[in-house]
Amino acid sequence: MAEWTEIRIIINADDADKASDIANMVVPYGIYIEDYSELEKQVRDIAHIDLIDEDLLKKDRNRALIHIYLEPGVNPAESIAFLSERLNSEGVAHTIETDKTLEEDWRNNWKQYFHPTPVGKRLMIKPTWRDDVDPEGRAVLNIDPGLAFGTGSHETTRLCLETVERYLKPGDTVLDVGCGSGILAIASLLLGAQSAVGVDIDETAVRTAEENAELNGLSERFTAIHGDLTEKVSGKYDLVVANIVADAIKILSKGIRGFMNPDSVYIMSGIIDTRGDEVAEEVGKYFDIIERVEDNGWVCLAAKIPG
């Protein structure tokens, strides 16, 4: 069986939330977190018992571990460098280690944390391996994230989905820049878009997005492109979404108007709140910002072309 590379980020337990958010955004792969800082409280709140396994009690309460998995043949050096740079910029002391793990172990480690998730007023995000779900009248988006970021549970994706739901009009054409698992583009189609294009710099993400479109019977209306931002994109779109990091949004915003119609809406997420004003100021050079929503330290912006 092929081996995967495991990246372990070791940080202070107090930095676990910040570090995991960064890991989720800068590396498009599944992660899981070991944080035992509130072990007793969590066991009491969730399991309602006081008896805890001795091995768990021996875990270091002052540090946390974030595990990221890369598929066979992928060089982790670039991902590690990018992670380190982002963690340093946020003042998170860290150590990064790598190891090998079997694909079977990776899949067992993350699937247990991915559950059906209602989003907004009209969507239900459902793992492909769950058949025991009542959609409660919502449109069901079946998804297998594989190695590509985007399950609908992270605040950045959820903020984007909810904002897309508010601004999407029936028959719109959609461009999803940094599409990851394809969740935003596919959700747009389920909500009434005519067609959607997803682009990602990661080949695994492009492949996963195509597979997820097929799972939902939407392959004929979805096109996936392997490329950096809009370098291989053509045409104009009624709705543009970008759930990527702040620096990439700043770069993208300089030229994205060339891919938009006069009344198109541009939705941006993946912005850490400490950089929200900075990104909004840059975006404001080219667009009128019509909405700003925040959740748990993350910012989503919606904008239109002035005039």
Gist of the model:
It is built from ten helices and 14 strands. The protein has 307 residues and is of the alpha/beta class.
**Distance N terminus to C terminus?**
58 Å
Q: What structural class do you assign from the helix and strand content? A: alpha/beta
Number of helix segments?
10
Residue share in helices?
A: 25-40%
- Could you state the CATH homologous superfamily of the largest domain? Vaccinia Virus protein VP39
Any low-confidence stretches, pLDDT <50, length ≥5? Answer: 38-53
**Biggest sheet layout:** 7 strands, mixed
Number of strands: 14
| Radius of gyration computed on alpha carbons | 20 Å
Mean pLDDT: 82
Please give the oligomerization state of what you see: single chain
| Overall 3D shape | globular
Write the CATH fold name of the largest domain: Rossmann fold
Keywords:
alpha/beta; 4-stranded antiparallel β-sheet; Alpha-Beta Plaits; 2 domains; 7-stranded mixed β-sheet; 307 residues; Rossmann fold
Plain-language structure description:
This protein is of the alpha/beta class and 307 residues long. The chain has 2 domains: 3-111, Alpha-Beta Plaits; 117-304, Rossmann fold. It is built from 10 helices and 14 strands. It has helices at 16-26, 39-47, 54-57, 77-89, 103-111, 155-167, 183-190, 203-215, 246-253, 276-283; strands spanning 3-12, 31-35, 63-70, 94-102, 117-119, 123-127, 139-143, 173-177, 195-200, 222-226, 237-243, 260-272, 288-295, 298-304. The strands form 3 sheets. A 7-stranded mixed β-sheet has the order 10-9-8-11-12-14-13, with helices on both faces. Helix 6 (155-167) runs parallel beside helix 7 and helix 9 runs parallel beside helix 10. The protein is globular.
